[in-house]
């Protein structure tokens, strides 16, 4: 745990990446596996993770992210896209997976299915999109922590035009919305931000024990 805390102190929102350094396939697989293991409500994972390496696509996206250099200079750009809406299939598909993975008859999961559907299906489309976006941010948090543990630099990014990203990446047709980005790679020696002291609230101000 001491190493984990040390690595979290090491990480920062990298502003300038070394465009000549790429993440190894082994580390990328580990990073994505860690992200896929993120917690989500009911375990439903109502989002998709897009891993963008292609330089041409990222160059098309860059103007719609305020021309931030991280979009094109990082080793990879990860887009986490939440489902904009859903029906009973979200629960049904998940429980089919549960049944097959745990060797449990679907019939034994009916009451669980009814409970989830009763809580989720009546939500409005706006409420559903808000809920799925919150799940996506849990995945983002896990991605950032896992990257730090692998000594991979990251920059979480909300400064982009989601409408244009959705259009370029064809997400609208997939019932998806680009909700948050993470540039991943290795910091440039020229990035002065890495030398700044980390600023956080003290535990006394942030944490209350009851």
Automatic annotation (TrEMBL):
Gene3D superfamilies: NADH Oxidase (3.40.109.10)
Pfam families assigned to the protein according to its UniProt record, in alphabetical order: Nitroreductase
Entry-linked InterPro entries: NfsB-like, Nitroreductase, Nitroreductase-like
Name of protein: NAD(P)H-dependent oxidoreductase
Keyword NADP: yes
Record keywords: NADP, Oxidoreductase
Occurrences of domain Nitroreductase (ranges): 9-186
Transmembrane segments: none
Similarity comment text for this entry: Belongs to the nitroreductase family.
Keyword ATP-binding recorded: no
Chain segments annotated as coiled-coil in the UniProt record: none
């Amino acid at each position: 745990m001491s190493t984990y805390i040390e690595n979290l102190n090491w990480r920062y929102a990298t502003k300038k990446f070394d465009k000549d350094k790429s993440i190894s396939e082994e580390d990328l697989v580990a990073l994505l596996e860690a992200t896929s293991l993120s917690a989500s409500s009911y375990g439903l994972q109502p989002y998709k993770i897009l891993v963008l390496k292609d330089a041409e696509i990222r160059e098309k996206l860059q103007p719609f992210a305020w021309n931030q250099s991280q979009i094109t200079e990082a080793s990879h750009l990860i887009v986490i896209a939440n489902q904009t809406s859903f029906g009973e299939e979200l629960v049904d598909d998940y429980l089919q997976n549960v049944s097959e993975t745990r060797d449990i008859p679907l019939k034994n999961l009916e009451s669980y299915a009814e409970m989830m559907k009763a809580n989720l299906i009546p939500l409005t489309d706006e409420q559903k999109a808000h809920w799925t976006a919150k799940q996506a941010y849990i995945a983002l948090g896990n991605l950032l922590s896992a990257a730090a543990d692998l000594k991979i630099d990251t920059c979480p990014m909300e400064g982009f035009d989601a409408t244009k990203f959705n259009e370029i990446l064809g997400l609208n047709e997939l019932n998806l919305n680009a909700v948050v980005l993470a540039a991943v790679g290795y910091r440039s020696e020229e990035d002065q931000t890495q030398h700044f002291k980390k600023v956080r609230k003290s535990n006394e101000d942030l944490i209350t024990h009851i």
